[in-house]
Amino acid sequence: MLLHFLQAGTLFLCKGRAIAFRKSTSACEIVYRILENWSTVCENFVKEFEKTVDSVLKNCYDGHEQRNDCGVRRLKMEKNMKSKIVVDSSANVYELPDVGFACVPLKILTDEQEYVDTAEVDAPALAEKLRTYKGRTSTSCPNISDWLTAYEGADEVYVVTITGTLSGAYNAALLAGEEYEQNHEGARVFVLDSLSTGAESRLLVERLAALIKAGKPFDTVCEEIRAYHEHTHLLFALESLANLARNGRVKPAVAAVARMLGIRVIGQASDAGDLEVLCKTRGEHGALERIVLEMKAHGLTNGRVHIDHCCNAAAAERLKHMVHAVFPDAKVEVGTCGALCSYYAEYGGLMVGYEDNEAPTV
Questions:
Q1: Residue 26: CB partners within 8 Å, gap ≥ 6?
Q2: Which of 102, 193, 217, 339 has its CB 3.0 to 4.6 Å from that of 164, i.e. a possible disulfide?
Q3: What's this model's pTM, rounded to 2 decimal places?
Q4: Phi and psi angles of residue 202, each rounded to the nearest 5 degrees, phi first
Q5: In order along the chain (362 residues), what is the average pLDDT of each group of 10 residues?
């Protein structure tokens, strides 16, 4: 009797709607979809029932009265959907409030010790130690298993990785996403290659959190973060290129010249995800001035700016004031580099992520 009532109620509520059922479509099927996703603890039966029917029609059938299986799978999960943002530690983000979050650490390797890039690592002390270290050093990225562990428990996973041009983290995250989707029915994993690192990745992570909190669906979040990524940038000012050269990130000749002349190197993350040297300058003030000029040339006005430093808080604060002098409405925050970024930025280095004036809002 209850089933007949629900069938009748379903057909009544669908009467006159733009999307109608075919004659071959059983009302029972629709009802079962409702029962699968509808909590019986409801003070207002009719309102909840109508809302659920609307959701079924929108998600399970297209405008041509054809079943949309992707929508059916999405509908099955939407009552208890769990979203999670997953990043590697190059983003310098180790926790993120109010959203599901996991940080997958990269590692710094020396002849004597392995350093796992977590929030517990004393990055400034590590940078100071490596400054005079004479042995071999290198870094390693997370493997597929590391990424799979981080994805666990989520139905929708949004991943941001260090540039895939210079690291295997992106490919590992991508392969882990494919495996996770195969082993978790209805789960979806989106992997974004930041083509960058550090402060720019942090901008991407924070935008993802804002989109999720706004309640936007998976496909919309993916589309909008891609659009936002077109308008984020990374600049860096480094006193040493030794570790970048040691690991094949820049040419050894460039690092040698910088060391001999005692100059600072100003560079950016290129569109291809390489680290591109823009110019060389003597003195810290000249380096900071060039950063502000580059930001202006790329269209910064009142956007967000993240300045991460490696043992150089004074320069970071000075740059913040210089940015505000030219762009009074810019939203500037100063942070510190984690272990991985400290290894590559080295002692005294700065990494600046910013959005240009065409960056879309949430």
A1: none
A2: 193
A3: 0.77
A4: -65, -40
A5: 48 43 45 50 54 56 49 48 96 96 97 95 93 89 98 97 94 98 96 98 98 95 98 94 68 62 84 89 91 95 96 97 97 97 92 97 92
Q: What crossing angle do the helices spanning 69-77 and 27-37 adopt, rounded to 10°?
A: 30
The distance from CA 281 to its chain's CA centroid, rounded to whole angstroms, is: 32
- Paired with 331 in beta bridges are 304
Tokens 């993120």 belong to 96
Taking the C-alpha atoms of residue 45 and residue 63, their distance in angstroms, rounded to an integer, is 27
Q: Are 347 and 311 in contact (CB under 8 A)?
A: yes
